[in-house]
Design a protein that fits this description.
With 185 residues, the chain is mainly alpha-helical. Helices cover 86% and strands 0% of the residues. The chain contains six helices and no strands.
Length: 185
C-alpha cells in the first residue's frame, strides 16, 4: 500500500491536484465550522429578540436589526428590508466558496485522473497486459476519488448553511412584519 501511495505522489500533476484538493478540503471544513457556529449564535439571538418583541412590542436590543434601524431617522418597511438584505449578505459570506468547491473539485480530480492515465499509457511497451495497465489506471483514479471526497462535504455543508441562513431571514422577516403591523395599529 505504501509503495502504491509513493507512486501516486511521484507524479507532479498528481501532487498538484491532490494538494489543491487538500487545500479545498481544509477551507471547506474551516468555513463550515466557523460559519455554522456564527449562524447558530445569531439564530439564538434572533429567536430571543423575536420572543421579546412578541411580549413587549419593542425591538429588542439583542437583534441585529436594531443597530441597522437606529441609523435611520424613520423606521419603514424599506429600512427593514435594507437591514435584512445587509444581514443576508453577512450571513451568506463564504457560502459561495463551498458551492464552487462542490462543483469544481470532481473536475479537478478528473483532470488528475486523465493526466495519470495518459502518463500510464505513454510508459507502456508495445504489448501490454491487464496486469500492466490495471495498477497504472488504479493509481490515476485516486485523483477522481479525492475530488469526489472533497465535493461531498462541500455540497452538504453548503446546503446546511443555506438552511440556517433561510431560518435566520425568516426570523428577521417575522420581526419586521410584527413590528410594522403593530406600528400601524
Amino acid at each position: 500500500m505504501l509503495q502504491e501511495t509513493y507512486k501516486v505522489l511521484t507524479n507532479p500533476i498528481s501532487l498538484i491536484v491532490l494538494g489543491w484538493l487538500g487545500l479545498y478540503l481544509f477551507f471547506v471544513f474551516f468555513i463550515f465550522f466557523n460559519k455554522f457556529f456564527f449562524l447558530f449564535k445569531w439564530l439564538k439571538k434572533e429567536e430571543e429578540a423575536l420572543n421579546s418583541l412578541l411580549m413587549t412590542n419593542n425591538i429588542s436590543e439583542t437583534t441585529s436589526l436594531r443597530n441597522c434601524l437606529l441609523k435611520n431617522d424613520k423606521i419603514s418597511e424599506l429600512s427593514f428590508e435594507a437591514c435584512i438584505l445587509a444581514a443576508k449578505k453577512t450571513a451568506s459570506s463564504g457560502t459561495t466558496f463551498l458551492s464552487i468547491v462542490a462543483s469544481t473539485s470532481p473536475f479537478i480530480g478528473l483532470f488528475g485522473t486523465v493526466v495519470g492515465i495518459l502518463n500510464a499509457f505513454s510508459h507502456m511497451q508495445t504489448s501490454a497486459t491487464i496486469n500492466m495497465i490495471a495498477p497504472a489506471i488504479s493509481e490515476a483514479l485516486v485523483a477522481t476519488a479525492v475530488g469526489i471526497l472533497v465535493a461531498i462535504p462541500a455540497y452538504s455543508f453548503h446546503q446546511i448553511l443555506m438552511k440556517k441562513i433561510e431560518d435566520l431571514l425568516t426570523l428577521l422577516n417575522m420581526q419586521k412584519d410584527f413590528y410594522l403591523d403593530n406600528e400601524e395599529t
